[in-house]
Amino acid sequence: MNIRLEQPEDYHEMPKDDEVPFFLAQELIPCYWGNREGTYCPPKGYFVADENPEDFDEYEKTFPKKAMSYNEGQLPPFAAKTKLIMQTARLTLRPWLDSDAEALFKYASNPDVGPRAGWPPHKSVEESREIIRTVFSGESMWAVEWKETGEPIGCVGYLPASVSNLRIKDDEAEVGYWIAKPYWGKSICTEALQLVIDYCFNVKNFNTLWGDYFPENPASGKVMEKCGFKDTGIETVCPNLVVGADRPVKVMKLEK
Ligand SMILES: CC(C)(COP(=O)(O)OP(=O)(O)OC[C@H]1O[C@@H](n2cnc3c(N)ncnc32)[C@H](O)[C@@H]1OP(=O)(O)O)[C@@H](O)C(=O)NCCC(=O)NCCS
Q: Which of 53, 171, 193, 229 is the most buried if burial means most Cβ atoms within 10 Å?
């Protein structure tokens, strides 16, 4: 599909030179748009509450009271706020959902996955759900969804300095990832990590990204290498929750 992306220069009454936090995406259909130009104006009705706040309050009171809630399957509020969804032709990076717990358990219970990254295999769907609600709930962790099936098949994200095990600066972050074993060797991790790198540099404005891996897990080093990370030669230690002790790691680095 051909798509045109542009920063709208004349959205409603916004000054043309203002930087805006959104863009327009428009499918290019031959002969559809032509040379037409226009200014998008939200309908007048959108502003009734601003123009007549008192009348609006009275009108609101005529409705039964409703509580705001967030249901399973719905994207968490921060997803809408921070526009966290990114995609390639075959992957969608999106926030984790409660409803992903079974798929997460299926893949994260495999003993060949977590221990390579220093965490123990998941033991139950309940544990996976809890991890979704805690470890994966922040705005810096994405589920890697395989578009063909709609299933989450991995996790990718970054850790800011405040929670990284590496001693890094405030304008730096550490990347992390894993992919379900049936999907290894298809460049999926490299593709997903590349999206997160672009996000970290262009949206979060980090200047340097770091990553580390256990020397006995060279595939992880290879993923970072394919994304442009360089071996720093630094060897430090990081907690390995599986063996319950710090273990040596190799440290890689990518400058903006
Ligand atoms: C590491 C991991 C994320 C890679 O995912 P993936 O989608 O298979 O990665 P990619 O296909 O993008 O790239 C993997 C690269 O490593 C290479 N590789 C695989 N096994 C390797 C090995 N034993 N030695 C060296 N390179 C290896 C692959 O050939 C591939 O490189 P290529 O494309 O040049 O052939 C996945 O194996 C995984 O989840 N492992 C367990 C968790 C983990 O290690 N997380 C990282 C913790 S630091």
A: 193
Rounded distance from Cα 190 to ligand 1 centre (Å): 9
| Exposure string over 227-238, b if 16+ CB within 10 A, otherwise e | bebeeeeeeeeb
Average pLDDT score over the chain: 85
- Residue 81: pLDDT band (50, 70, 90) is very low
**Residue partners of 11: CB distance under 8 A and separation at least 6:** 20, 39, 40
| DSSP strand pairing (208-213 vs 172-179) | parallel
Q: Which residue ranges form the domains of the chain, and what is each CATH number?
A: 3-61 (no CATH), 77-255 (3.40.630.30)
CA of 36 to the centre of ligand 1 (A): 49
The model's pTM:
0.74
Reduced to 3 states (helix: H, G, I; strand: E, B; else coil), residue 81 is helix
Residue nearest to ligand 1 atom 27, measured at CA: 219
